[in-house]
Amino acid sequence: MTTAVAVPFVNLNRQHEAIVGELDEAIDRVRARSAFTLGTEVDAFEREFAEFCGTRHAIGVGSGTDALHLVLRGCGIGAGDEVITAVNTFAATAEAIVMCGATPVFVDVDEWTALIDVTKIEAVITGHTRAIIPVHLYGQAVDMAAVLEIARRRGLKVIEDACQSHGAMLDGKMTGSLGDAGCFSFYPSKNLGAMGDGGIVTTDDEELATRIRRLRNHGENDERLHVESGFCSRLHGMQAAILRAKLPHLTEWNMSRVEAASWYDHALAHTAAARPATRPGGTHVYHLYVVRSVQRDKLRARLGSKGVGTGIHYPVPLHMEPAFASLGYARGDFPVAERVTEQILSLPMYPYLRRDEVEVTAHALADTT
Ligand SMILES: *Cc1c(COP(=O)(O)O)cnc(C)c1O
Questions:
Q1: Is the pTM for the entire model greater than 0.70?
Q2: What average pLDDT does range 50-70 have in this prediction?
Q3: What average pLDDT score do residues 7-25 get?
């Protein structure tokens, strides 16, 4: 017997149905102009997204992973270099470091926010360190003042992984505008999602922007000369047009997530699940609503049996993933991340999640049978 889905983990139909006319118009426009690769829609979206983030430049690329990879390359980072990031991020953050030939160096995380523990960054800096990639995990910003202070003092680049934090602010500034560059993913379920893959880099650095524009398009400059060997990683015109239709709704959709989070906060008070911790000074856009419990597996099974979808972000810290075994880390190297990983549970979260769906989820969590 299969359980009927009561509350799916993600539901993208609701946001698409809300703006179906705008999406159809965007798709027709691209077809009518055959503006499929770079072109007018991509140019316009880059301007609009840069304005949204408050940066001088935005460069559309093929994915969030490519955004990270091309920024690292654009900063001249490669073989022999080390790049510091959190051990509990999505694999793509570390993959991008490996893709440019550099070595990922992991840092443990804060017990309650699950964000990189900024007090442990300085200890892993060596003569080979070139950059720090803070990850604004789950939709809230890392303590950037601390990261930037270390980076400025030690001469390192700061590349924000903002793939989960579209629209999240810190001290009145958008994530993606706080470091030397910001990297965003438009994977469909992100806070701003395309109908396929896409990504973008935000930066105030003109030289870096020019370099990434070249790298994403086979190393070709404005005179169509191939000045370096690059990559094929362009944001598609169709995705840019869809993202242009969605961007004006992002703030409202983030507010809808924040409201759902407040319902959860309230409803979870009498359950075995601890609600997520928020840092002061920032806004949380709840890409994910992640609770903590020592009975995580039991709670997850119970939710599943009641038709409530859940996720674990992420089930294995990167130092224990087979893909990164050659880095030489071992179990026990990152005790906080290892403990947190066994207790985290992501509950359904998306714009237009209804209050009754939050209650169904909370009741399933509270059920002691
Ligand atoms: C989604 C995500 C990425 C990668 O994005 P893609 O578009 O799937 O390549 C990188 N880092 C984090 C933290 C993410 O959540």
A1: yes
A2: 98
A3: 97
CB atoms within 10 A of CB 155: 9
64 Cβ contact partners less than 8 Å away, ≥ 6 residues apart:
92, 161, 163, 183, 184, 185, 186, 187, 190, 199
pLDDT value at 369 more than 80: no
- Tell which one of 88, 98, 164, 312 to mutate to probe ligand 1, the residue whose CB is within 8 A of the most ligand atoms: 164
CB atoms within 10 A of CB 339: 14
Query: Which residues, judged by CB distance below 6 Å to any ligand atom, belong to the binding site of ligand 1?
Result: 63-65, 89-90, 92-93, 135, 161, 163-164, 185, 187, 197, 199
| Centre of ligand 1 from the C-alpha of residue 67, in Å | 9
Q: How far apart are CA 263 and CA 190, in angstroms?
A: 21
**369 is written with which tokens?**
């049978």
Q: Nearest to residue 257, comparing CAs of 195, 165, 335, 171? A: 165
Q: Which residue has the tokens 């896409």?
A: 198
- Phi then psi for 210, rounded to 5 degrees? -60, -40
